[in-house]
Amino acid sequence: AQPQILAGKQLVITAGPTQEAIDPVRYLSNHSSGKMGFALAQAATALGAQVTLVSGPTRLTTPVGVKRIDVTSAAEMLEAVQAALPGCDIFVGCAAVADYRPAQAASAKMKKSGATLTLELTPNPDILATVAAQPNAPFCIGFAAETHDVVSYATGKLERKKLNMIAANDVSDPALGFNTDDNAMTLIWRDAQNEIQQTELPRASKLELAFAIFARAAQLLP
Ligand code: C5P
Fold first, then answer.
1. Predicted ipTM beyond 0.85
2. How many domains does the chain have?
3. Ligand 1 pocket mutation pick from 32, 126, 153, 155 by most atoms within 8 angstroms of CB
4. What's the mean per-residue pLDDT of the chain?
5. Which residues line ligand 1 at a C-beta cut-off of 6 Å?
6. Which of ligand 1's atoms lies nearest the C-alpha of 92?
7. Which domain holds residue 48?
8. Distances from the Cα of 108 to the Cαs of 48, 73, 74, 178, in angstroms?
9. Is residue 107 one of the residues assigned to a domain?
10. What is the distance between the alpha carbons of residues 66 and 41, in angstroms, rounded to a whole number?
11. For a designed S-S bond to 188, which of 14, 195, 198, 210 qualifies (C-beta 3.0 to 4.6 A apart)?
12. Cα-trace Rg, the chain
């Protein structure tokens, strides 16, 4: 049994990709499997937390004890997150939210022609930054996947999105990251004196990394 370091805490975790409709049969998305977010939900539950997992489309089964809310688009994910936020102590943004969506989803299947086709895209809301900007925001944890200058970009995101902690990983290594069972990351956070601190979490299963992230977060909670 795990130490109950998150007993009495409510968590909201986003996971997986979002799908942004082009027309009724097509969408824009990415290769996120949802594995890291589901591992976080499983770990937090084992540590005693009550977890709401807001998930984009994945092939994963819901960890036992987790309340799962399925969504498709970024707009739906933001709405489900807002609804789940009251009483939330820790928010973890682990979803690979599509940065853009088609400006208008066609209501009928688009027909092909020989001509080029231009899709107009409009930016999606940043769910994590929206949560972190709210008055009385929960403790906010983000993820950053980078191919280079991992720590400096991730620290920039921590500052810009006003996060408490960010887990950064190098996705240039094909053995780690998207759709793999293992990962390795640098954990970066703001301490009680508002100084930026960091530690390496060496290669381990996503579940082990989730436990390591919450062990650190639990020490920083108010
Ligand atoms: O800026 P970038 O997309 O790299 O930031 C990644 C972090 O922000 C992740 O924690 C991700 O879940 C979150 N995010 C979000 N909504 C977006 C884009 C990113 O919550 N629209």
1. yes
2. 1
3. 126
4. 96
5. 14, 74, 93-95, 97, 124, 126-128, 142-144, 157
6. 10
7. 10-102+121-220
8. 47, 18, 21, 33
9. no
10. 7
11. 198
12. 18
